[in-house]
Design goal:
Blueprint (H helix, E strand, L loop, with lengths): L1 H10 L2 E8 L3 E8 L5 E7 L8 E3 L6 H14 L7 E6 L2 E6 L4 E15 L2 E13 L12 H12 L7 E3 L9 H4 L5 H5 L8 H11 L9 E12 L2 E11 L23 E9 L7 E10 L6 E3 L10 E3 L7 H14 L3 E5 L10 H17 L8 E4 L2 H5 L6 H16 L2 E5 L5 H4 L23 H7 L19 E5 L5 H22 L12 H22 L6 H7 L3 H34 L67 H4 L20 E2 L8 E2 L19 E2 L6 E2 L4 H4 L26 H11 L2 H4 L18 H9 L5
């Protein structure tokens, strides 16, 4: 009995807390869900510059805990006694700017889903409390900056798109939550834990995380669906990486550590709906999106809705690109399948610059890899085929997804909820910073089938058990922003995978779901909502869902109007609000840490920590001065005054060799940036592909890559792949003129027939400087969009999907 009680205490986790204060300390009382375990945490309030946290090693009962609080109150009566502060549901973390430490708490929560009995929550309300008592006054000299940093931190809205679980490692996929020989490797992986920096102080002192929650940022949705009169539960999870995180134009490409912008892992989990006590079949599949892993950028301007793409040529050996794919292999295994959806042919080379360079990088990387581990790729211009009404883009992408699924597989297992469920799904937390993981009776994944097949205690009847399946490798999808086109492709992958998942579970006879079925429509709506959420986080507006709208048969004029307003919303968010949003992200993630005597974040012309754009009264100059920003080490610094004779800027690397060179073993080589107006590229003719005239051997598109598997190459469209036949895939292509993917028109309006790009450029041309180019950061707290625009319009730009 004593042994069982000790196991219960060890496996318990705390999920409800009460905070009390005396003049000298905070006392936090935490209890388990069943109220069997009570613990006490003490936080020192007498030292403003240091964080001192002590955990009482004693496990109390409820009565013992009440008695302890009474004694604390009696001992502090001379200074006011013990006072109740708030009820909370976990510590988000601790942070210090120029003055005292602050504590961030979750004060309200709501359940948004359940995974194998483990609840997943979103934050409804949070609170930030200073640690020192009121007698410790902050320095008046720094109070103004202190309040500004605090305001920046609070602008990260924890009630939007953050989620957590006390007992399930929601930052990991279902497959990684199962014990394997690699369990130790994944135990401390915090790539998707956005409050890792905020919790580092308490974790370092306590060596556990009983008191904190791990916040994941992205998307979480759980719904009940049905097919053939059988119900199942579908969970769609998006996890956004905290590495190289930020906003659309301030985070592009890859950094020197191989981390890419807009890196998001998407997991689709299917749970069989069965009576309580019966074995449940579970399947999950994971895919990935992320910016093109090259050193490239776009400089946002208030007078240019479509900035040039500027490609750096410093990383000649693609070392950062190699690091990125090596990281993907560590996370998912081989094969890595690249689905590149950017344009392959353009009258003026923009996306196609990256297309050529990316193909060349993959070719060079594959030369050094054994044949079985080479990167699989498909370069396929989604924009070209989406304009052809006779082309079913989703069906074609579904075929690509089928090929990818054949290569990677997907995860499947059966779980028996029996009397030993505590061992099967262990809710304990480890002592080295990790949260609980799903556990079986044996830590060997190869024996998992044996455990579920013979662990029939408490289960009656005959059940047919299937061997587990595991996913090895991943499909990585990208376009330019990894938002609009990418989300369409990710839906197609989820649609193809769902057919296989339901077939494996035994719900359907064939591993295919009809694209015109109600279930496919339900799934599309979920992916569409996920795409909108991720696009708002990174791009500032909901996603352009033209293909989804067409699929639903939405009125064309309504679709065009929606696309136009989303283009408008994204433009204003990028031009006026992203700089401050990036500052807030950098502070929250700890990429920038304020120090007394150092320049404030908003005083920096460039940020050497993690891309902070410059601000100030001269932030924009008269003639479309570019936002001055520093890319990650290995990228280029651009001078805002460097303007060419036309409307585009030519960026040239101007870095100090000793302090800025990312790869010291390389020669400097060509450091010119490629843009639409670069002298290296001739844009005078109507040629649909960039023509290099003044550089050393630029990357070319090979018809055959001798160091790769067989290359399927389409000469007319420049689509190519080494794992499927692109002529077969692209057989229904067309010869329409190239257009912008996000183009939309307003039928019957005064600006009908014009693209949204032209409309916005004309608005910028005719608007006065005071109307279209106000200061980015309004110091008086008014809306940052400024003159000529109402508060209601500013609110829509910040939060709205459609203008009211």
């Amino acid at each position: 009995m004593a042994h069982q009680q000790q196991d219960s205490i060890t496996n318990a986790y705390l999920q409800k807390f009460r905070l009390y204060e005396t003049r000298s300390n905070f006392y936090m009382i935490g209890r388990s869900k069943n109220r069997s375990v009570w613990r006490v945490l003490k936080i020192d309030r007498s030292e403003p510059a240091e964080l001192n946290i002590t955990e009482d090693s004693t496990t109390y009962t409820e009565v013992e805990c009440c008695d302890l609080l009474k004694r604390i109150h009696d001992g502090n009566k001379s200074t006011g006694g013990l006072r109740f502060v708030t009820t909370c549901y976990g510590i988000v973390g601790f942070i210090k700017f120029l003055g005292p430490y602050y504590m961030l708490l979750i004060t309200k929560r709501r359940k948004i889903g359940v995974i194998c009995g483990h609840a997943v929550y979103a934050i409804t309300k949070s609170e930030i409390l200073p640690i020192p008592n009121s007698t410790v006054q902050p320095s008046v000299a720094y109070s103004k900056n202190e309040n500004r940093y605090k305001k920046l931190l609070c602008s990260v809205d924890l009630t939007k798109d953050f989620y957590f679980s006390y007992s399930y490692r929601v930052m990991h996929s279902f497959q990684k939550n199962l014990p394997t020989h690699e369990r130790g490797h994944f135990l401390n992986e915090t790539m998707f834990v956005w409050n890792e920096f905020l919790t580092s102080g308490i974790h370092n002192q306590l060596k556990n995380n009983l008191w904190t929650v791990a916040l994941v940022y992205g998307y979480f949705k759980q719904v009940k669906l049905s097919i053939a009169e059988k119900d199942f539960k579908l969970t769609l999870i998006a996890r956004r990486s905290r590495h190289y995180a930020g906003t659309r134009y301030l985070k592009r490409g890859v950094n020197e550590k191989g981390r890419v912008a807009n890196d998001v892992e998407t997991e689709q989990i299917v749970f069989e709906d069965v009576p309580e006590g019966c074995p449940v079949q579970i399947s999950s599949v994971v895919q990935n999106r992320g910016s093109i892993p090259l050193f490239w950028s776009q400089e946002t301007s208030r007078l240019n809705i479509k900035p040039d793409i500027i490609l750096s040529k410093k990383d000649h050996k693609y070392d950062a690109t190699k690091l990125h794919f090596e990281n993907l292999v560590k996370r998912y295994g081989n094969p890595i399948i690249i689905l590149n959806l950017i344009k392959t042919k353009e009258k003026r080379p923009r996306e196609s610059l990256l297309r050529v360079e990316f193909a060349h990088a993959i070719e060079l990387i594959n030369k050094d890899l054994p044949e079985e581990n080479r990167l699989k790729f498909l370069h396929w211009d989604l924009n070209k085929y989406s304009r052809n009404k006779s082309t079913n883009v989703l069906a074609l992408l579904g075929k690509v997804a089928t090929y990818a699924l054949n290569l990677t597989g997907f995860f499947y297992c059966q779980v028996i909820p029996n009397s030993r469920s505590e061992e099967l799904f262990n809710g304990s937390r480890d002592d080295n910073g990790g949260h609980c993981c799903l556990q079986t009776e044996n830590n060997d994944a190869d024996n998992f089938k044996t455990v579920i097949s013979h662990g029939s205690s408490g289960v009656s009847g005959d059940f047919s058990f299937k061997p587990p399946k595991f996913q090895t490798g991943v499909l990585r999808t990208n376009c330019i922003d990894c938002l609009d086109r990418t989300n369409v492709a990710q839906y197609a992958y989820g649609w193809a995978a769902l057919g296989r998942q339901l077939h494996t579970i035994g719900y359907i006879d064939a591993p295919v779901i009809e694209l015109d079925s109600a279930l496919a429509d339900d799934l599309m709506r979920i992916y569409e909502k996920m795409g909108d959420t991720l696009a708002l986080q990174y791009g500032g507006s909901a996603a352009h869902n033209k293909i989804f709208c067409q699929r639903r048969g939405q009125w064309k004029a309504a679709t065009q109007s929606q696309e136009f307003f989303r283009t408008l919303q994204r433009y204003y968010s990028n031009a006026y609000m992203d700089a401050e949003k990036q500052d807030a992200i950098n502070v929250f993630l700890g990429h920038y840490q304020p120090q007394i005597g150092k320049p404030a974040l908003w005083e920096l012309d460039s940020d050497q920590h993690y891309d902070v754009g410059s601000r100030g009264s001269n932030f924009f100059m008269e003639k479309a001065r570019l936002i001055k920003r520093s890319l990650s080490v290995g990228n280029m610094l651009f001078d805002g005054n460097m303007l060419c004779d036309g409307s585009s800027a030519i960026g040239i690397a101007q870095k100090d060799e000793e302090s800025e060179q990312p790869y010291p073993d390389k020669t400097q080589g060509d450091t010119k940036a490629l843009s639409e107006s670069s002298p290296e590229i001739s844009c005078e003719s109507d040629s649909s592909y960039p023509r290099y005239t003044n550089s050393a051997s630029p990357p070319q598109l090979p018809e055959e890559c001798p160091n790769s598997d067989r290359i399927f190459y389409n000469r007319d469209s420049f689509n190519c792949s080494n794992f499927l036949d692109v002529d077969w895939l692209s057989s229904s292509g067309n010869s329409c003129e190239d257009e912008t993917y996000e183009r939309s028109t307003l039928v019957g309006s005064p600006i009908g027939g014009q693209s949204s790009d032209n409309v916005m450029n004309e608005m910028c041309t005719f608007a006065s400087d005071s109307e279209i180019c106000p200061t980015v950061k309004a110091q008086d707290g008014r809306n940052p969009i400024g003159g000529g625009f109402s508060d209601r319009f500013a609110e829509w730009v910040t939060h709205g999907d459609m203008f009211p």
